[in-house]
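Forum > Structural Biology > Help requests

Title: Can anyone predict the 3D structure of Activator of the mannose operon, transcriptional antiterminator?

Hi all, first post here. I have the sequence for Activator of the mannose operon, transcriptional antiterminator but no way to get a structure on my laptop. I'd be grateful if someone could post the structure tokens.
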Amino acid sequence: MHPRRKQLLTLLLRTDDYTSVTELSERLNCSEKTVRNDLKALDDFLENDTRITIQRKPSVGVLLEGEEVEKKKLLYHLHDTEDHTLTQDHRKFEVIKLLLTTGHVLTMQEIAEKFYVSKSTISSDLPEIEAWLERFGLNLICKPNLGLRVKGAEKAWRCALSKVVEELANTASFVLNTQQLQVIKDVLHPYEVAFIEMETRKLDQTLDFHLTDQSIVNLTVHLAIAVKRIKQGHSINMLESELSELQKKKEFTFAKKLAKQLGKQLAIKIPEAEIGYMTLHLLGSRIRYDLSLVKGEFQSSLEKIDEEALQIVKELIQKVANVIDQRIQDDQELVIGLAIHFHSTLNRLRHRLSMTNPMLKEIKKMYRYLFEVILSCMTDLEEKIETTIPEDEVAYMVLHFQAALERLNRVKPDKTTAVIICPTGAGTSQLLEAKLSSLFPELIITEMTSITQVKNVIYRNKPDVLISTVPLEGVEDVPVITVSPLLPAHEQEMLRKFVKEIHVSKERMSDRYSTLKEMIVPELIFLDMTHEDQSDVIRFLADKLYQRGFVEKGYGEEAKEREKISSTYIGGEVAIPHGKGGAVKKPAIAVARLKKPINWSGEKVTFVMMLANNIQERETVKRLFSELANLVEDENTLRQLKQPKTALQFYKLLQ
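Reply #1:
Sure, ran it for you. Structure tokens for Activator of the mannose operon, transcriptional antiterminator below:
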């Protein structure tokens, strides 16, 4: 069991009263989202191995329910015996790690004994493991009476192993510490990882644009895996033409210098193709945002960015501005930030380097309107660069544009000085800085920096407060407020209390869902539907909208095609399928509440709200998506919406 989940379970076992998620997150020094995810994982653990359950009471907290003797037994087991029981998800990654790092065929019995479970348990895990490996182009070969092994290209093998390391060691925390290195010590040697990270950070100081902490950790892991695989006799193959093109780039020179240092210290010879592979990762790494790029150094910053990325960005900004606000075309920070992002994005896309956006779901939920606007601009852009742009990349673009919108409403601050510590990248840093400046005029953001520069920044700026998106250790002289990159409402309130100013009034509950209620057609609310497939639900609701004259005939097919581009699940068991605005005759929303939740692109969905609106009607659509974002966070209303027996009762609950 993950140490943090073990600590969470211990906290719950030692209290007889409800504990709020906020309090648990503070005691565990992590985000509320992490606590909720851990609680879900503990649900599975408790259901399979105990008669204890987690009870949840909205606005109150969580409580373990079960016999006292059962609780004491579990508490004893957690701390006085070795914990061999893993959640299914964690076990899945441990099994994959074993398959990817073992140089021979493994029998089901060997795997089962390794994880103290039955062969049937491992057998039930295999379909998920096989599907996960297939995402990377790897095949799980099952030979009767022999065992299991993985087969596939070396590049795919490394990508998969890198993802396993990320999942097990939580390398998304942006700093590789001793505890993380111990978790993956049977995959990567701790000394080698530490040395590679040190050399990578040295290299970073010589680059035109510095890498994010996240990129440095990702690059370190990729290089450590490459070293391991080279030592095992596995090397990357690269076409001569591709290698020749890479050798012309200045990043190849940096990669060659790094390879020389690694080869000398780790006693290996790194082939030229491997240096090409290192170059690809350098080209695709996300770049850290620095205020100096736009404050006095705008022109010199533009000169460092390749012309193609800059031209694409200018065209994209113009298209988005035509829909949301023409003024953003004059925002130099938007041009620089987005151009820097595309500088690496184009390399990732063209060389098929995946980039997972850990904030994808939250971005789609909080900034749905903007996400849809940018997504609608992708068709022309994809044709121009001749490759598909995944929704993870679109979500990063949303951050840049949202930051520009926040800056339009900015009031000049004059009170409290603050430094932002945000290791995830330019878009995230810009958005957080813009939101803070817009919401809190009394804050002066003097600098945005990385984790490794915290002490220097404190000495140089002497800020009143540090606002960090990751927990900081060893900072005593300045108060630290930890927030998530998107700064949701509850964190805004926390900051508001800190600066002792309240500038935003709460919306009245009666007006909270006014736009949603205005657009929902009571006659198009269908309760306890028995559909088992998302395509069936989309077709049913589209037909109803068509019959009432709200949309044209092919709206359902449009919505299905739109779903293939990016899932319209927004959280809270709610999905909002929709087609193109051109097929909408009159704005409306049709609603289906399903009798049993269905699988919607891997998520559980009970409420399907089919939207028929035109994205050009920006004010109405912005209000609608804002209300939908509130709804999926409103557990009380969602719970109540499951109760009504009639459409009218359902409709009246949206007060």
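Confidence is low (pLDDT under 50) at residues 80-85, 291-296, 501-510. DSSP finds 30 helices and 13 strands in the chain.
Shout if anything looks off.
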